[in-house]
Amino acid sequence: LGDEMYNILDDALKKKYAVPQFNMNGLIWLESILKTGEKCGAPVIVGTTDKIVDQLGGFNLLAQTFKVMKEELEITAPVVLHLDHGQKIERCFQAIDAGYDSVMYDGSKLPIEENVENTKKVVDYAHAQGVTVEAEVGSVGGTEDGVYSDLLYASLNECIQLVKNTGINSLAPALGSVHGKYKGEPNLGFKEMEELRSFVDIPFVLHGASGISDTELQKTISYGHAKINYNTELNISWSKALRNKLTEDTELYNPMEILKPSKEALNSTIEEIIQRTGAWKQA
Ligand code: 13P
Ligand code: ZN
Ligand code: NA
For the complex shown, is ipTM > 0.95? Predict the structure, then answer.
């Protein structure tokens, strides 16, 4: 695999930092992720959840927009377009056909045998086209894409089974993280991470990173998390700024004026996360 995602995660794992994945919820997000990544000299991953793909116009539109925007903005730092929580094998195939660099197949709700079987199909298809694959074991708690899941810690054996039998490039072991806001303090399974690391050497992916403290984040990185996913934190700062602007000037109707502070809020939140994960100047 001469692939960009493979290279950036490999470098991060070796140098003990993490590449942030920022989920996009509109063109403004994409522009902000690409520009800020370039400004910080950081590798970044643009995540599109399965549902957002359709809400934003489909795989082809997103893959082409990504490509054109990257060229127009003259981005030189490594950037990767990734399908986040692909719910079906076919969805992953569609993303790959459209030109995505990387896909996540999320079979975490299935029995492990079925998860392995389906993930393997995605890996075979993806690797033939130089596309990397992430897969999940256990269950990240909370709500994403309007889908609620109970938190379920990944089993060590199932993680090993999935990695050994599929050839995936990265593993998301659900070990206490939650999509969206945390109710109370996060309860991350550091012992489990450490143990898993002694059996599995591919990069780990941390989902539900919004709401996790700096200290905990550094620990997850030390146990081999090389990709860390952020969605909620961006959306909170975006909506806060937007809400302020609209209440501050109730007569305002120029969309670009209205969106200016929320764009700036996105930029600064992304920059702050790039520093936090250690991806700053790693491009
Ligand atoms: P948060 O929304 O908690 O940041 O989680 C993001 C995520 O895991 C995307 O897959
Ligand atoms: Zn996730
Ligand atoms: Na979270």
Answer: yes
Query: What is the atom index within ligand 1 of the atom nearest the CA of 49?
Result: 10
User: How many domains, in total, are found in the chain?
Assistant: 1
Return the structure tokens found at 223.
């146990």
Note whether residue 282 is domain-resident: no
Does the C-beta of 209 come closer than 6 Å to ligand 1?
yes
**Rounded to an integer, what distance in angstroms lies between the CA atom of residue 191 and that of residue 197?**
10
Q: Which residues are annotated as a binding site for Zn(2+)?
A: 85, 106, 136, 179, 207
**Any atom of ligand 1 within 6 Å of the Cβ of 169:** no
Spatial contact of 211 and 181, defined as CB atoms under 8 Å apart: yes
How many angstroms separate the alpha carbon of residue 185 from the centre of ligand 3?
Answer: 11
d(Cα 260, Cα 7) in Å, to the nearest integer?
35
Residue located via tokens 């309007």: 146
Q: pLDDT tens for residues 1-55?
A: 448 999 999 999 999 999 999 999 999 999 999 999 999 999 999 999 999 999 9
283 part of a folded domain:
no
pTM over 0.90: yes
At residue 122, what are phi and psi to the nearest 5 degrees? -65, -40
CATH of the domain at 153: 3.20.20.70
